[in-house]
UniProtKB/TrEMBL annotation:
Main location group: membrane
Entry protein name: OPT oligopeptide transporter
Renumbered residue ranges of the record's region Disordered: 1-38
NCBIfam families recorded: OPT_sfam
Stretches that traverse the bilayer: 81-103, 115-132, 152-177, 184-205, 211-230, 242-257, 324-341, 393-415, 454-475, 481-504, 635-654, 716-741
Length: 768
């Protein structure tokens, strides 16, 4: 999902950062001795005078959040790698990997957040300090109070393992739809290698997308804010900790109500209640409670598990406004296209990622594929071409618009930074490297620690690439030829730069999977499995790069030594690969038919895996028949090139209008990659949360930030952390207790607030 760009032209970032006004306050005595090597006064936000909102400077630029909200305090004497770090890191990595894999096969688009891992780690780490003796040899197991560096390393390990690898989803799709079951060792190595390739690329991009202040990763601010509040011990942080636990307990006690006995509260639609399940149109436009039900116009949610998907307390207001504008256009575009039979989808499902026959029944791909999964053209002539639902086709087109716009957006707005990074890379290769000049207090604090040498990353990259190539040749025929793996890995490197700028400055993640699959269709015509596997190297590698960059930034914010961050990533990836695969095997074996069904159930759904299969058949086997010029879905391919034009008029307006004028500010405010993506963002999963996000987002990032800046700085990001943490904990408990993750679901008795799914959807719209 997707936040907004900062409102200043990125080419001017360095000048503006050096001249930005930063509120300077007294540095705690505990850290004062460690500042001798600095020639500037350290910023300590923990003792800022926040009680009087009128005395607190309003944060104007988005990137200044990282300077004014987060402290640059560091304690180099604190150990990062201890028994607690390894024990809790490995344990929570296994736990997070299992939970994240369960969520992959759920109808809700949920994930295991870093905040969830952070809270569990804090409780267990503090308990270990209290319980384990600290005298004699015990001091090696309990070297002192649980500290922020141990905590950060554990969080990085656990969150890395909790990020489900695309490789696992593709391996599940192979099993479900092609009856190809990879050897366990091959599957695990494939998952691990696909992640490590991205981590190798991340090492090359550190100076561009980690060290500078403009790369502030908005969604990580609440994580760091909570870590500092838990471990820095002044009076203000004691108040923050109390506030955090009050909110945590409150949401923990509330969240189980909309999730289990009263699911109607996850999507409250007055219009659906008034219609009482009579009309398909009402369900399609206003429904939002059940998977693949509707796009949720005027639907509100009270479930934070859903609301947090829009990050309303975290994303900068500009990001949120662009996403809401995109969704507003989406309500109109999706509805008009469907009811005007665009792409021939009027008689199909309203929302689904599956393929269909023209009469609306699910497309049987086995009828058109040979035994080796290549296309049987004779059978295709008899069976006919498949159809996407209209909403899914429009969504893919919008994602491709966004992809094209992202590339040009970064070139236009960040050209000076790109040139600077390129010059530095050239000087590095020539061994003429100059010291990096980055005016960022967090980065300057990190200079005392040893960096990870570039050759570590390059070695990791080469070995992982070799392993990935080897794993592709372990079946009867190559899953993907070696030259294609290298080609799409190179493409993913370039994409990581463009997408990295968007993620670093807005928190928004642009999806490129549809664009990559279209490229693969023309590189591997008639090869559905090859097109599916390209996702590992052209799509997954890009996002693994971004995950590593984000964790490097987390380490910079908390002053975790870079080598400890690197090691934590490696451990988390190894543990995650093993448990991702083993848990996936258990779920797929127990729920095969449900996961293959286009709509699934309230408990299990294969909608994520189905996307890969649909793309492999439509693009891999039938790419030229469906996506070539003058074919049914040719616009999906050409939308990438059309998207290249989207940012140009806004950049020209910004460049050639008088600075400070309304038109100039408007042009710099519009983020076309985010806006375009959100036009097609709704035809998935459940959508009951977005109007709640609008209200909360404006209340937080506009009203509180502008009129209550003191409260905003003290509590806004901590509030987000508490809400995320409490809701994640109760969802985990419910998943195993009643939602079937333990093998058997326990349905709550049917009543008005939990309607019979055969009669009504969750929000009492017409059942699908």
């Amino acid at each position: 999902m997707l936040p907004t760009l900062i409102s200043d032209a990125p080419g001017e970032l360095e000048r503006k950062l050096s001249s930005s006004s930063i509120e300077k306050t007294r540095t705690p005595d505990s850290a004062s001795k460690k500042d001798a090597y600095f020639d500037h006064e350290k910023v300590d936000v923990n003792e800022a005078p926040y009680d009087d909102d009128e005395e607190v400077k309003v944060i104007e630029k988005a990137e200044d959040v990282a300077i004014e909200i987060l402290s640059s305090e560091d304690h180099p004497e604190l150990p990062a790698w201890t028994f607690r770090t390894l024990f809790l890191g490995v344990g929570l990595s296994a736990f997070g990997a299992v939970l994240a894999t369960i969520y992959t096969f759920k109808p809700q688009n949920a994930s295991v957040s870093q905040l969830f891992c952070l809270i569990i780690a804090y409780v267990l780490g503090t308990a270990m300090h209290v319980i384990i003796p600290s005298h004699g040899y015990w001091r090696y197991l309990n070297p002192g109070p649980f500290n922020i560096k141990e905590h950060t390393a554990i969080v990085i390990m656990a969150s890395t393992a909790s990020t489900v690898a695309v490789a696992m989803e593709i391996i599940a799709a192979l099993d479900l739809f092609y009856d190809i079951r990879l050897n366990a060792a091959v599957a695990i190595f494939q998952i691990f290698a696909s992640q490590m390739i991205g981590y190798g690329i991340a090492g090359v991009l550190r100076e561009l997308l980690v060290y500078p202040t403009y790369a502030f990763y908005p969604t990580y601010i609440s994580v760091v804010n909570l870590l500092q509040s838990l471990h820095f011990g002044d009076a203000l942080n004691q108040k923050r900790r109390r506030f955090f636990w009050i909110v945590f307990v409150a949401i923990f006690c509330w969240e189980w109500i909309p999730q289990y006995p009263f699911p109607l509260l996850t999507a409250i639609s007055i219009i659906c209640l008034a219609d009482n399940g009579r009309h398909d149109f009402v369900r399609n436009l206003f429904g939002a409670g059940s998977s693949n039900e509707g796009i949720g116009l005027f639907s509100f949610s009270t479930s934070w598990t859903l609301i947090t998907q829009g990050s309303p307390l975290v994303w900068p207001l500009q990001t949120q406004v662009n996403s809401y504008l995109g969704m507003a256009l989406g309500y109109l575009v999706l509805t008009l296209c469907y009811y005007n039979n665009v792409f021939g989808g009027r008689d199909l499902e309203w929302m689904s990622t599956s393929l269909f026959f023209e009469n609306g029944t699910t497309y049987d791909q086995s009828l058109i594929l040979n035994a080796d999964n290549s296309l049987n053209k004779t059978a295709l002539d008899e069976v006919g071409l498949p159809y996407y639902t209209t909403t899914y086709a429009i969504s893919q087109m919008c994602y491709n618009f966004s992809f094209g716009a992202c590339i040009v957006h970064v070139i236009l707005w960040y050209w000076s930074d790109l040139k600077k990074a390129a010059r530095h890379a050239v000087s590095t290769l020539r061994r003429l490297r100059e010291p990096i000049e980055i005016d960022d207090p967090h980065y300057r604090e990190m200079q005392k620690y040893k960096e990870v040498p570039a050759w570590w990353y390059m070695t990791l990259f080469v070995i992982s690439l070799a392993v990935g190539i080897g794993c592709s040749y372990t079946t009867d025929s190559a899953l993907l030829p070696w030259w294609s793996i290298i080609l799409f890995t190179a493409i993913s490197f370039l994409l990581a730069i463009a997408l990295g700028f968007i993620a670093a400055t807005t928190g928004f993640s642009i999806s490129v999977k549809y664009a990559i699959q279209i490229m693969a269709a023309f590189v591997h015509p008639g090869k559905p499995i090859a097109v599916m596997y390209v996702n590992l190297y052209g799509n997954s590698t890009t996002y693994q790069t971004l995950y590593m960059l984000q964790d490097l930034k987390l380490g910079q914010y908390t002053k975790l030594p870079p080598r400890a961050t690197f090691a934590a990533q490696m451990v988390g990836s190894i543990v995650g690969s093993i448990f991702n695969y083993t848990m996936m095997r258990s779920i797929v074996d127990a729920n095969r038919e449900v996961l293959k069904d286009p709509t699934g159930t309230r408990v299990w759904s294969g909608w994520i895996v189905q996307q890969y299969n649909s793309a492999s058949v439509a693009l891999g086997a039938l790419g030229t028949e469906l996506f070539a010029v003058h074919k049914r879905y040719d616009m999906l391919a050409f939308s990438i090139f059309i998207g290249l034009l989207f940012p140009v008029p806004f950049w020209l307006l910004h460049r050639y209008t008088k600075p400070g004028t309304l038109l100039n500010r408007f042009a710099s405010y519009i983020n076309t990659p985010i806006l375009a993506l959100y036009v097609g963002y709704l035809p998935y999963s459940v959508n009951g949360q977005w109007w709640s996000c609008v209200v909360i987002g404006f209340a937080s990032q506009w009203w509180l930030r502008k009129y209550r800046p003191g409260w905003f700085k003290k509590y806004n990001y901590l509030l987000s952390a508490a809400l995320d943490g409490g809701s994640q904990v109760i969802i985990f408990i419910l998943s195993f207790a009643v939602f079937g993750a333990s093998g058997k679901a326990v349905d709550f008795p049917l009543w008005w607030g939990n309607p019979d799914p055969a009669v009504f959807s969750v929000d009492r719209c017409k059942a699908t």
